[in-house]
Design brief:
The complex is a heterodimer of chains A (312) and B (261). Chain A has twelve helices and two strands. Chain A has helices at residues 2-15, 21-52, 59-74, 83-104, 114-136, 161-183, 185-195, 197-202, 207-232, 242-253, 258-278, 287-298; strands spanning 151-154, 157-160. In chain A, strand 1 (151-154) and strand 2 (157-160) form a beta hairpin. In chain A, helix 10 (242-253) runs parallel beside helix 12. Chain A starts with a helix and ends in a 14-residue tail after the last helix. Chain B is built from eleven helices and ten strands. Classes of the chains: A mainly alpha (312), B alpha/beta (261).
């Protein structure tokens, strides 16, 4: 994947090379940082979709809620806890939130059509948005985090520490998830459940608990994305709509592929600033979705999808 | 053979199972004695698969009892039943296609809390199915049908079962592969002491392997007996083994049809 990003970067540099080299590089970095946030939200989509075949359209709102919970814990205006204490507490709380959501609500939907689950999660998104607005207000707020507003100079580039942190955290988180899925007993059980739920039951895997743990995990990942987003800019209850962009990212990458989700996020993230720079205003916002359309036409199952014919 | 003396490995009495409002099993009772192979025969829709699913806890029996060595397991959840020593090798193999052969086998041992002996058991499975060792790192979905069936059985063995429920292991396989698989089932029964309950449409192969057989039809046991008796029964021969009689076949068949009802 690193090489893909590399070629993408050099392609952009070739196209817009020369004097604007440095500028392009800066656009690229901020695009990658945004893309990482999209990618992390998309990761949540894919986790839940793979394991339970449900599409969680409240994923963006869970991200927003996670950001607000952290903000509520750490900002001076609220509880004023130290940032590094607030982050694990928020991750824990949101993990528990995801778990409880599955156990109390989503579990009742088993056996219902997929559309019913989609509508349910859309409704959940509305409720979360309303709750966040009622508790923290509708004004945009920023997270008082130590990484906000600090610049680092690197080889002639001026980069925001927040952007660098976003990229690093995403890499680490993805690596941890990958190792967790590939190497641990529980991770293997999660993979098994997503590939063949019936057979997972036959193996004695507690499928229901695994589903709840998946929701827990996606709550945690969403919160990580929310914290990164909120320290990079500001957050308000409507930030959850970013989830739509992240969903597009998940589809571009191939719904069902974890690396694909991240890649899709990066694609959209990188396209945005360049489109804003080089395409007429008003049209630039359309570009990511035009790319989505293009991917769907050329490779309907997504870039990194695991397509296979089911053998009987 | 004295069948009713000791506590059987598995006994099912008067169970009924439903798919929603539709009854699939209408009061089946049967026994699987320790260390034997028992075949359950029947056409499509006779309730064979439902019977196995009810035993392994995927479906709950509406009525009746399922006993494993005298201990009631009916209504337990599947994980608990696997832990008590019942391995279900499902119809259509149901392997994990995107995981490696090795990981598939590992998942077979999921309910075993401690990792001790897993490596040894995997070596045991590889001993019975050398091809799986060759393909250990390969994604299971890329195996052939016969190899996938071997993997499904090997995965079942990883749970260290006392009894294995085999649902149509011959489904969709070449006659040669069927022979190979059935030979291993026999060896696992003799060498590892695993009791086998074998559900099959391939009646002849199943009865040649099994000690005892039951015939299901429309959710009921309509006939039972030792394999040799079933193999020589005219009804079984005509309806399940396809042995045709000469002469006034149509006439005879009309008279003979369903004498067990």
């Amino acid at each position: 994947m690193a090489t893909r990003i590399g070629t993408l970067a050099s392609a952009w540099l070739a196209a817009y090379g020369g004097a604007s080299d440095l500028e392009s590089l800066q656009l690229l970095v901020s695009g990658l940082a945004n893309g990482c946030v999209y990618g992390l939200i998309a990761l949540g989509f894919v986790l839940i979709y793979k394991a339970t075949e449900a599409l969680n359209f409240a994923q963006g709102d869970m991200m927003m809620l996670g950001a607000f919970v952290t903000l509520g814990l750490t900002n001076d205006h609220y509880w004023a806890l130290p940032f590094w204490a607030s982050v694990p507490i928020a991750l824990l709380l949101m993990g528990a939130f995801g778990y409880v959501l599955e156990v109390t609500i989503l579990r009742r939907m088993s056996g219902q059509s997929q559309i019913a689950v989609v509508v349910l999660t859309v409704a959940l998104g509305f409720i979360i948005r309303f709750l966040a607005g009622a508790i923290w207000g509708h004004e945009p707020q920023s997270l008082e985090s130590p990484i906000a507003g600090v610049n680092v100079r690197f080889a002639g580039l001026v980069l925001g520490l927040d952007e660098v942190a976003v990229i690093l955290v995403t890499i680490v988180l993805t690596g941890l998830l990958y190792l967790g899925f590939a190497r641990t007993r529980l991770g293997l059980a999660m993979q098994a459940t997503s590939q063949n739920q019936l057979a997972a039951y036959y193996m004695g895997i507690p499928v229901k608990r695994v589903s709840a743990l998946i929701w827990c995990l996606s709550g945690i990942v969403a919160t990580a994305a929310g914290i990164l987003l909120a320290s990079k800019g500001s957050i308000d209850p409507n930030s959850g709509f970013l989830g739509i962009k992240a969903f597009a990212a998940a589809v571009i990458g191939g719904l069902g592929s974890l690396p694909g989700a991240l890649l899709g996020g990066l694609v959209i993230g990188v396209i945005e600033p360049f489109a804003a720079r080089h395409v007429a205003a008003g049209f630039s916002q359309v570009v990511p979705y035009a790319v989505l359309l293009l991917v769907l036409i050329i490779r309907p199952s997504g870039i990194l999808s695991q397509v296979r014919d089911k053998k009987v | 053979m004295s069948r009713r003396d000791a506590v059987p490995m598995l006994s099912v009495s008067n169970i009924e199972s439903y798919y929603g409002p539709i009854i699939a099993i209408r009061g089946i009772s049967l026994e699987v004695p320790r260390q034997q192979i028992v075949a359950v025969l029947g056409a499509n829709g006779a309730g064979k698969t439902t019977l196995l699913k009810t035993i392994s806890g995927i479906m709950e029996p509406e009525k009746g009892a399922v006993m494993l060595e005298g201990q009631a397991i009916g209504g337990d959840d599947p994980a608990a039943i696997v832990r008590k020593g019942v391995a279900h090798v499902p119809e259509g193999r149901e392997i994990f296609p995107l995981l490696s052969v090795r990981d598939n086998l590992r998942l077979g041992a999921y309910t075993r809390a401690v990792a001790d002996g897993i490596a040894k058991d995997m070596a045991m499975v590889f001993g019975y199915f050398p091809i799986l060792k060759e393909r250990a790192g390969q994604m299971a979905g890329t195996l052939s049908g016969g190899q996938q069936q071997m993997l499904a059985i090997g995965r079942g063995m990883m749970a260290r079962p006392r009894i294995m429920l085999l649902d149509e292991p011959s489904l969709g396989l070449s006659p040669l592969a069927v022979k190979e698989i059935f030979a291993v089932i026999r060896r696992l029964n003799v060498e590892q002491g695993v009791t086998m309950m074998l559900v099959e449409q391939n009646a002849r192969a199943a009865l040649e392997l099994a000690d005892y057989g039951y015939v299901l039809e429309l959710g009921r046991v309509v006939m039972e007996g030792s394999s040799s008796r079933l193999l020589s029964s005219p009804d079984i021969q005509e309806f399940y083994l396809g042995v045709k009689e000469g002469g006034q076949r149509g006439q005879r068949r009309w008279k003979r049809r369903k004498t067990w009802r």
